[in-house]
Amino acid sequence: MGSLTPVPDQETPTGEVVPGPAPPPDPSPATPRVAASDIDLIPWDHDSAEHHARLLAQRKACGWRTDEMDEWGRLSREGSKTFYWIRDILAKHAARFPHESAPILDTAASAWGLPRQPPPPPPPPDRSPRSFVPVGHFALVRSRPEEEARIGLAGQRAAWVCHLYVSWALQSFGLGKAGMLRLEDEARAPPLEAPVIALDTMPAEYQMRPDLIEKLYIQQGNPAPRMSNQHWYERLGYETFFHEQGAYLWLNPATGQKEPIDVAYLKKVLK
Ligand SMILES: CC(C)(COP(=O)(O)OP(=O)(O)OC[C@H]1O[C@@H](n2cnc3c(N)ncnc32)[C@H](O)[C@@H]1OP(=O)(O)O)[C@@H](O)C(=O)NCCC(=O)NCCS
């Protein structure tokens, strides 16, 4: 991945954003390592304690929005918000080679004629055909007309992407990009049939401020981002159209206090 400097947009006093110059070309290869067709969108089961606990664990690992699970359960039940799991891509291998899908044990006691200590056996795996290992998640939300009118998207019937997270252990392998493309397909299809997909994230220059990287990532035990989320979404064809100062209240786990965070809104027309 080349080093990429975010190009600031020009913001008007009303919060509207006039796009800045296009980001410099990225020297890294554009081919996704995982294709959108490799991603199964498996809905979160809002009635399952297991799904609830796993989503909370992933929100904690992500470091954002750990305190909204009850609200999400309600929105999911009423049909205005749907979370999806990003499934372990091993499922793709298992679908093509089902006879190779069961785990085998690491038992070799020697290699190159030298003794080797295999690890202790893990707990027995669940071999149910319905089992899967979620390695991330995100949610799609139905259009929010009042919110959309407030930020300049009146009448656009946007679908909203929220809470994207890919396991810190599996980032930069293409899962996030493939997942976003797959989610865009979902937003185009019934029941949403959205002409536009939108999301919010921290503005690039704000997210990459050393004091915020320290507070939001390092102190949470996570690595500093090498690229801002805003720039990451722009590379997927999203365009920034609005900025708002202090629009999101982040719960600082160290202090228990909610702290205001600046927000950039991005959208992409779905063709
Ligand atoms: C943002 C996030 C979802 C990206 O997911 P990911 O699976 O790591 O991203 P991908 O591997 O699909 O990235 C796609 C492209 O961005 C590049 N990329 C990903 N992470 C990068 C990084 N840290 N620095 C530079 N480039 C990166 C990849 O190389 C890839 O480039 P390519 O298309 O040229 O091949 C993930 O980093 C994440 O979950 N972060 C923590 C939570 C978060 O910030 N969510 C967003 C909330 S708005």
Description:
This protein has 271 residues and is of the alpha+beta class. It is 25% helix and 24% strand. The chain has one domain (31-96, 128-269): Aminopeptidase, CATH 3.40.630. The radius of gyration is 21 Å and the shape is globular. The two termini are 29 Å apart. The protein binds coenzyme A. Coenzyme A (COA) binds next to strand 8, helix 5 and helix 8.
- Which cofactors or ions or other ligands sit in this model? coenzyme A
Number of domains: 1
Number of strands: 11
What is the 3D form?
A: globular
User: Strand portion, in percent?
Assistant: 15-25%
Q: Provide the succession of SSEs.
A: EEEHHEHEEEHEHEHHHEE
Strand order of the largest sheet: 3-4-7-8-9-11-10
Annotated CATH homologous superfamily = Gcn5-related N-acetyltransferase (GNAT)
CATH topology: Aminopeptidase
InterPro entries: Acyl_CoA_acyltransferase (IPR016181)
Q: Secondary-structure blueprint of this entry?
A:
Layout: E1 10-11, E2 17-18, E3 41-43, H1 49-62, H2 69-78, E4 81-87, H3 90-96, E5 110-111, E6 114-115, E7 134-141, H4 145-150, E8 158-166, H5 175-188, E9 196-201, H6 204-207, H7 210-216, H8 229-235, E10 239-251, E11 258-269
Parallel strand pairs: 8-9
Antiparallel strand pairs: 1-2, 3-4, 4-7, 5-6, 7-8, 9-11, 10-11
State the main characteristics.
7-stranded mixed beta sheet; 271 residues; Aminopeptidase; Acyl_CoA_acyltransferase; globular; disordered N terminus; binds coenzyme A; 8 helices; alpha+beta
